Structure to design on (250 residues):
């Protein structure tokens, strides 16, 4: 197994430029010896500042969304080439909040992922079930559908540049967390799906899958000890340098 762990912070709609300077400056020395990949995904207005401050460090910068078109009449949207020009390396695609509040679909996730890859960005593709879907016994159905749709038309060669984030929607921002065993078993469904879409060896060695359900300093080590979990997409705990660094050093 050759999957390197990756911890990514999703700031969501938080932090001004001044707050970004303070947070990133505090974070740099705390994670400089990290053995995993470290990413911070910031609002658009903070990206240039984050890229400048992290230059020469082991911290990579990501955006929280990207449009599928290169340019055009899409008021309020940002293209992949615009992000690349800023020095951004990663981008979150299909986060549950984008699906819930802004009409993101399995098809638009796929379109955004393809556009990101074409421009040289590394997508963090989010999939996950709601509480209603889990209670209805539809977890596997939902994850297979979302994963299959997200990777439609994406070649095997791109897998090294893609991260999948499993988000149990019912555990995001609620304080509820899937047990390590439940998270591990559910992520295996995603990995098994990738094995069918590509090949078992690809899924085992090249597909990195994060857990995105309220991972924090208290539960990171237990979650990261699971065989199927390759990292975390961190929400609230990424907004404080000390807290985020503890997850990075799980």
């Amino acid at each position: 197994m050759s999957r390197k762990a990756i911890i990514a912070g999703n700031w969501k709609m938080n932090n001004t430029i001044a707050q970004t300077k303070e947070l990133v400056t505090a974070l740099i020395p705390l994670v400089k010896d990290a053995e995993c990949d470290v990413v911070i995904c910031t609002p658009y207005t903070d990206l240039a500042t984050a890229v400048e401050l992290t230059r020469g460090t082991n911290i990579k910068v990501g955006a929280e969304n990207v449009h599928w078109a290169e340019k055009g009449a899409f008021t309020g949207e940002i293209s992949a080439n615009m992000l690349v020009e800023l020095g951004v390396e990663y981008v979150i695609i299909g986060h549950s909040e984008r699906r819930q509040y802004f009409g993101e679909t399995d098809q638009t996730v796929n379109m955004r992922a393809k556009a990101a890859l074409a421009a040289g960005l590394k997508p963090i593709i989010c999939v996950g079930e709601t509480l209603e879907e889990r209670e209805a016994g539809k977890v596997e159905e939902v994850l297979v559908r979302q994963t299959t749709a997200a990777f439609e038309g994406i070649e095997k060669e791109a897998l090294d540049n893609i991260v999948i984030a499993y988000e149990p929607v019912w555990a995001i921002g609620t304080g509820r967390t899937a047990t390590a065993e439940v998270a591990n078993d559910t992520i295996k469904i995603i990995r098994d799906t990738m094995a069918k879409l590509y090949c078992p060896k690809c899924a085992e060695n090249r597909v990195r899958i994060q857990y995105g359900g309220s991972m924090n300093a208290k539960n990171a080590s237990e979650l990261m000890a699971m065989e199927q979990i390759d990292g975390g997409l961190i929400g609230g705990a990424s907004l404080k340098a000390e807290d985020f660094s503890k997850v990075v050093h799980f």
